[in-house]
Specification:
Length: 249
């Protein structure tokens, strides 16, 4: 008797990342990507440290390293919340009398058709479904509240005088509230972008989509978007960091 097995579905995952010191003396951003052996599962973290004097760099690296080390394929939003809160405690443990270091963090976990994410602060995640922007996270910041109150438009966040006033961060005092999300990925091409505010302040959402249309891969997509930063940012621009994850189902 001939038995026909179910055809194994092909899933292709590609990734790329970069971090740039910009015009600052120290790079307090950090990006880390890990994959699971023999699977297409992937986890990515972008963190933007706060605190100066090297403290932000320590905080962002500690947070990203802990999250990636404890991540497992298939982790959903509930588990990602636990990982962020664990990283929060780790950052608190690093703090001293001279440095109240903190860091933002955005994390993405993909396994098969399932994507889950969580974030704290104003580092963002964008999801493009077959070239169109399907979702983006909302910042935990004063300008984002101004948008919700109807005082400014989302585009005006980029150069708002309080754009650096972050309301949530790993290492803050008090309880940490984490925002999460999940999605079932339909057949097609999905592109995820995780980035610090030094990146998205100078690259607009319509430009992200336009550059995505003609990019041959995630590395080229990032490089195309970085040209916008080079053209717009001044000599004293912030650290800028991004990671791109492409999933073809």
């Amino acid at each position: 008797m001939l038995r026909l097995g179910r055809r194994r579905e092909k899933i292709k995952v590609q990734s790329a990342s970069y971090t740039d010191i910009g015009g600052r003396e120290d790079n307090e951003d950090f990006v880390q990507i890990v994959t699971a052996d023999d699977t297409t599962a992937i986890c990515c973290v972008v963190a933007d440290g706060l605190g100066g004097h090297g403290g932000g760099r320590i905080a962002s690296q500690a947070a990203a390293g802990l999250i990636c080390a404890d991540w497992h394929p298939g982790d959903g939003s509930e588990r990602l919340t636990e990982l962020l809160k664990s990283a929060h405690r780790a950052v608190l443990a690093c703090q001293g009398q001279l440095c109240s270091m903190k860091t933002t963090a955005v994390v993405l976990s993909i396994c098969g058709h399932k994507a889950a994410w969580a974030h704290v602060g104003d580092s963002r995640l964008y999801h493009f479904d077959n070239g169109r922007l399907a979702f983006q996270t909302l910042d935990h910041s004063l300008p984002q509240i101004a948008v919700q109150l109807g005082e400014i438009t989302p585009e005006q966040i980029r150069f708002h005088p309080d754009r650096n006033r972050v309301l949530r961060a790993l290492g803050q005092s008090g309880e940490l509230n984490v925002t999460t999300g999940e999605a079932v990925l339909a057949k097609g091409r999905h592109a995820f972008l995780l980035c610090s505010d030094g990146f998205w302040e100078y690259v607009y959402e319509d430009e992200m989509a336009v550059e995505l249309l003609t990019a041959s891969g995630p590395a080229e997509w990032l490089e195309r978007m970085r040209r916008h930063i080079a053209n717009r940012a001044g000599s004293e621009n912030d650290n800028n960091t991004a990671a791109a994850i492409w999933v073809e189902l």
